[in-house]
Amino acid sequence: MSKDSGFYTEGAETFEAQVHSIPLSDVDSVSKDSIGGLVSQATAQMSSLFRSEVELAKTELAAEAKKGAIGGGLFGVAGTLALYSSFFFFFFLAELLSQWLDRWAAFLIVFIIMVALAGLLALFGYRKVKKIGAPKKTIESVGELKTLVPGKASEKQDSKTRGMYS
Fold it and tell me: What residues form the membrane-spanning segments (predicted)?
């Protein structure tokens, strides 16, 4: 809902634009205001325009975030169902093996297969996590900031080491 000013919202009950038009005065009108008055009007209009654009962006992002949250929730439910149904697959596999082996041996074999699979996946995950390194370039860049002198930063930077934001 919009507040008295019409620009700010409280909550996400509806996802429609809170500002339906931008309150600007006619640009082609002849004004007898002073330069200061014109600058004041331009500042007020720019402020209104900026607030309107921010409100529009908030409204659009809130709607998209709601869609994303619903999609993520549905993926979570699907994953949970798949996880629980995997129990039935392993139970089926054990019952199938019990056609040729004793029932206890079939379930033991399936148990060993599941533990071995979990161990392999844990090993692969551990190796991937172990390969994660520190952000060396960021640490180096932050270290260089300590030695910079205001007004002389461009002299210390070499064109080969310049990044996107330096």
Answer: 68-92, 104-126
